């Protein structure tokens, strides 16, 4: 696979996007220099197929990526990442690899990323792109409702699809002191929740408002 070029034009478009995202984070009372730096580094236009008009790759918008799924809006990526407070070498579990963009951002920030995708087509495509970009996350084709017990516990978890409820398996696989960021709600809108595991048995919940995601579905799809 050959990656598209990443010239000054795209870097300039990224700078504009980063400025916009930074402002939106500030308006929400959030900040995370690390995620902004990663967004400046990671070429988002690599995650679209060649039929896509690349002039839109740095709009603050979600776009279709195949299999009826979408690449998340850059602001949403930044917001979820900021809420997780990602540190270098954190073990992060992502549910919903999708295009692989969020995964690349986390890798760029120095996290050890484990990511699960239930759509075979997206699992295959994102695997190739991330590999060619030089990122080395552990990707899995499977059902994120189960988490990844073999690699638990995780410091951080990010769910990038709308979950009807918080799966128990995910709570169990979170470290004490760990953070899970998950959009919860079964309609077209979800509430962005940050769950902090404060002890073996206790979890604290904070609400960061309304977002809109594709649904978290059971099982896998070929
Ligand atoms: N993080 C992605 C967002 C993709 S959209 C990105 O940066 O592009 C959400 C993804 O979650 C979709 O690809 C969808 O197939 C996947 N998904 C939905 N339910 C899932 C489940 N139970 N397990 C794993 N992935 C799931």
* Widest beta sheet: strand line-up: 5-4-3-6-7-8-9
Kindly identify the CATH topology. Answer: Rossmann fold
Count of β-strands: 9
Q: Decide which structural class fits the backbone.
A: alpha/beta
| Percent of residues in helices | 25-40%
Separation of the first and last Cα atoms: 22 Å
Shape: globular
Number of helical runs?
6
The CATH fourth-level homologous superfamily: Vaccinia Virus protein VP39
Total count of domains = 1
- What are the secondary-structure elements, in order, as H or E? HHEEHEHEHEEHEEE
CATH class: Alpha Beta
What are the bound molecules?
A: S-adenosyl-L-homocysteine
> Biggest sheet, in brief?
7 strands, mixed
* Secondary-structure arrangement, i.e. CATH architecture: 3-Layer(aba) Sandwich
Relevant terms:
single chain; seven-stranded mixed beta sheet; 9 strands; 6 helices; Rossmann fold; 222 residues; binds S-adenosyl-L-homocysteine; alpha/beta; globular; two-stranded antiparallel sheet
SSE map:
Layout: H1 8-27, H2 33-41, E1 63-66, E2 69-71, H3 74-84, E3 91-95, H4 101-108, E4 112-117, H5 120-133, E5 138-141, E6 154-159, H6 168-172, E7 174-184, E8 190-197, E9 203-211
Parallel strand pairs: 3-4, 3-6, 4-5, 6-7
Antiparallel strand pairs: 1-2, 7-8, 8-9
Helix pairs in contact: 1-2, 1-3
The chain binds S-adenosyl-L-homocysteine.
What does it look like?
- The structure is a single chain.
- By secondary structure, the protein is of the alpha/beta class.
- It has a single domain (8-211), classed as Vaccinia Virus protein VP39 (Rossmann fold), CATH 3.40.50.150.
- It is built from six helices and nine strands; from the N terminus they run ααββαβαβαββαβββ.
- The protein has helices spanning 8-27, 33-41, 74-84, 101-108, 120-133, 168-172; strands spanning 63-66, 69-71, 91-95, 112-117, 138-141, 154-159, 174-184, 190-197, 203-211.
- S-adenosyl-L-homocysteine binds at residues 69-72, 95-96, 98-99, 101-102, 116-119, 122, 143-145, 160-161, 214, 216-217.
């Amino acid at each position: 696979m050959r990656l598209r070029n990443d010239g000054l034009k795209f870097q300039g478009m990224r700078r504009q996007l980063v400025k916009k995202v930074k402002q939106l984070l500030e308006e929400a009372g959030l900040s995370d220099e690390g995620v902004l730096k990663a967004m400046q580094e990671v070429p988002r236009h690599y995650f679209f197929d060649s039929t896509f008009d690349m002039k839109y790759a740095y709009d603050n918008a979600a776009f279709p990526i195949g299999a009826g799924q979408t690449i998340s809006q850059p602001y949403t990526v930044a917001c979820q990442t900021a809420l997780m407070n990602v540190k270098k070498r954190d073990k992060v579990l992502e549910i919903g690899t999708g295009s692989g963009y969020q995964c690349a951002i986390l890798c760029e920030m120095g996290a050890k990323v484990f990511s699960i995708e239930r759509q075979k087509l997206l699992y295959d495509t994102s695997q190739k792109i991330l590999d060619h970009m030089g990122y080395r996350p552990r990707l899995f084709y499977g059902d994120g409702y189960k988490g990844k017990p073999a690699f638990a516990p995780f410091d951080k978890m990010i769910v990038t699809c709308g979950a009807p409820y918080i799966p128990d398996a995910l709570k169990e696989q979170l470290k004490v002191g760990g953070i899970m960021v998950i959009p919860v709600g079964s309609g077209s809108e979800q509430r962005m929740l940050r769950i902090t595991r404060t002890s073996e048995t206790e979890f604290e919940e904070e609400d960061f408002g309304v977002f809109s995601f594709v649904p978290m579905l059971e099982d896998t799809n070929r």
